[in-house]
Amino acid sequence: MDCFVVPPRNDVTMKNYLYIFLISMIPLIELRGAIPVAYGIKAAMDNPADFNLLWAYIIIAVGNMLPVPFIFFFARRVLEWGKDKKYIGRFFTWCLTKGEKGGEKLKAKAGRGLYVALLLFVGIPLPGTGAWTGTLAASFLDMDFKKSVIAVIGGVILAGVIVGVLCTLGFGALFGIH
What we know:
The chain has helices at 11-24, 30-44, 53-65, 68-82, 89-110, 114-123, 131-140, 145-168. The chain has 178 residues and is mostly helical.
């Protein structure tokens, strides 16, 4: 099984892993965009065996989760600070509104199953439902940090499986992937 082979340490492959790692940290793109890019990189390589998709998934998941603690503890404060600033105010207000609406919507639908709802919210690969928005919503709802992180990790894994299956089934053709 080549999925458990340590990735090659050549410069091109390492740059590709770094590239998908960085993509996975971008808000709104996150894992949902990084996985199709990983499939595209593998398809475009002269030797596709040099690019291990299991390693790519792990790198993407870590990259997607890396900002979560910062978002949970600091994003709300930064957004509230910047909402009345001249150049960034509109964008920060939009982020606050999205976080508040997402949190209240999640709370209204979930009732007592709030953490399961958070997992599903993050796990459904639609724009605006990733780890960033889910974590911001958890912060707005003053949810428990550890339970929220576990729910977000579960959601990231679920989204990764869904997006990977879609890419494998040929929906990656939308992104120019073979």
